[in-house]
C-alpha cells in the first residue's frame, strides 16, 4: 500500500478509535459512578455482573433497549425525537476538535507523522465551545416538546443555567489563550512542554490556579452535574426535562451528559494540565496519550467525587453564584493575566 | 472538485432551510430550520477561509440569538397562525395589491441581477488573491480589529449596553404601584 | 475554485427569501426571523468580497453586523413580549390602531 492510502486508512482508524473511546468512556462512567458512590458510602457498588461489575453498563443498555418506546399524545412528534439526537450529536461532535496525543509515526510505519486526534483545527477552542453551546437545544427542546409542566420547567431552568455559566467558561478560556498565544488546542498543549527547575512541569494550572478552578466549576455547571443539577434532581422535578422519555430516547440523554463530561475533562486537561506532556519518557516514545488518559480519568473521578460529597444548590443560588461570583472572578482573572503578561513577560 | 461539491451542498442546504423557514406555521420549526441554515452558512464561511467568523456565527447566532428566540416563543406560548383565517384575510389575496406586490418583486429581482452583473471580478476565483494563512488567522483579525476599527469596536460595546438596558426595561412587567 | 459570483448569487437569493418573509408573514416572530436571514445574507456578501480582495476587512465588518443583529434581536423580542402582553396576539394586523 502506498503512503497516501495508508495514511488515509490510519486516519480513519484514529477517528474510529476516538469514537470507540468515547462510547466506552460513557459506558465505564456509568459503572464508575456507581462504584465510586458505593465506596464512598461504605458499600460495594455493582459487582455481580461480570468481574468487578464491569459488564453492568451492558446490562443497563440491554434493559433500556427492551423497554417500550413511549411518546405522550400531545408531544410534538418531530421535536420530541430531535431533542436527544441534538444532545448526543453535539456531545460527540465537540470531541472532534480535541487532540488526545502527540504526533506519531506509528513506530516508523508512516513517513510523516500523523496527529492523534480527529481534527487539528486552528480555532479548536472556539469549535469546542460552539458545539457544546449547541447542546443547550437538546435540553430546551426536550423540555418543551414533552408537553408536561415538570419537563418544561426543568428544560428552561437547565438551559438558562447552561447559557449563564458559558460566560465564566469562555472568560476562563480566554485567559489561557492569552498565555498560549493561540486558539489551537494542540499549540496550547505544546506550549506546556518542558519544566521549571527540572521537576515542576510547565502546566498552566500552576500559572492560573484560579482560572482552573473557575473552568472546572463552570464545566460542572455546563454539564448539569451536581452540585448544579437542580434541573434534573430526582427529589425536585421528578426527572426534569427527560421525565417523559423512555427506552432509546432516554438512554441518549445520560450518554450525552457523560460524553459532555468527558469532553470538558479532556479540554481541561489540554488547557491546564499540559495535555499529554509531563513524563519525558512517555513523550519520547510516543506514549503521551497514556498520561493524557490518566489525567482525564482523574478529573472525571473528581466530578464523581464532588457529586456525592456536596449538597446541591437551589436554583436561584445557582444562578446568583454564576452571575455574581463566578463571572466577575473570571473577568478579574482575565485582567490579572493580561497585566502579568504585559509587565512580567510571562 | 470536492470543494465545488461542498459549496453546492451547503448553499442548497442554506437556501432550502431559509425558504422553509418562511413557510412554517409553527415558529418552533422555523427556528430549528433557521439554525440549520446558519450551520450551512458557517460551513460556507469556512470555505471562504474565515474560520473565526464561522465559529462566531455558531456561537453568537445559532447558540445565543436563536436560544433567545426559542425562549420567547416558548414563554409566550403564542397560538399558531390559523391557516383558514390567514388565507382569507391576507392582503395579497386582493388583486390590486397582488399585482403591485408582483411588480415590486420583479423590480427587486431586476435590481439584484443588475447589481450582480456589474461586479467586476464575478468570474474570478474567490481565493485568487491574498495569503490564506494570514487571512484565516485570528491574530490578523484581532490586530486589524483593535487598530483600524477601534472606534467601531468601542461604539459597538456601548450599543450592546444600550440594547441590554432597553430589552430589560421594555420587557419588564408593570408592577402595581 | 469557486468564482465570487456564485457566493453573491447565494447571498442574493437568501436576501430575497428574507424580504419575502418580512412581507408575506403575519407573525411577528417569523418577521424577526426573516430579518435575521437578510442580515446573514449581507454577512455572506461581506465575507465573500473581503476574501476576493485578499484582506480581513470583510470579516471584521461581519462581526459588527453580528453584534448589531444580536442587539436588535434582543430589543425586538422585548418589544414583541410587551406587545403580546397587551393584545395577546402576534399578528401585526392587530396593532394597526394608533390609540393604545
Account of the protein in words:
The complex is a heterotrimer of chains A (346), B (177) and C (100). Chain A has 346 residues and is mostly helical. Chain A has helices at 3-40, 56-65, 77-94, 124-145, 149-180, 185-190, 204-207, 209-222, 234-237, 247-272, 280-284, 288-307, 315-344; strands at 99-104, 114-117, 195-196, 200-201. The termini of chain A are far apart. Chain B is built from eight helices and no strands. Chain B is extended and about 55 Å long. Chain B is an all-alpha fold and 177 residues long. Chain B has two domains: 1-102, Four Helix Bundle (Hemerythrin (Met), subunit A) (Up-down Bundle), CATH 1.20.120; 133-177. The longest helix of chain B has 26 residues, at 51-76. Chain C is mainly alpha-helical and 100 residues long. Chains in contact: A-B, B-C. At the B-C interface, helix 1, helix 2, helix 3, helix 5 and helix 7 of B face helix 1, helix 2 and helix 3 of C.
CATH class of the largest domain in chain B: Mainly Alpha
Span between N and C termini of chain B? Answer: 68 Å
Main sheet makeup of chain B: none
Task: Calculate the mean pLDDT score of chain B and round it.
Answer: 86
Count of the separate structural domains of chain B: 2
Shape of chain A: globular
List SSEs of chain A in N-to-C order. Answer: HHHEEHHHEEHHHHHHH
Give helix % range of chain B: over 70%
The amount of helix of chain A comes to 55-70%
The CATH topology of the largest domain in chain B is: Four Helix Bundle (Hemerythrin (Met), subunit A)
Low-confidence runs of chain A: none
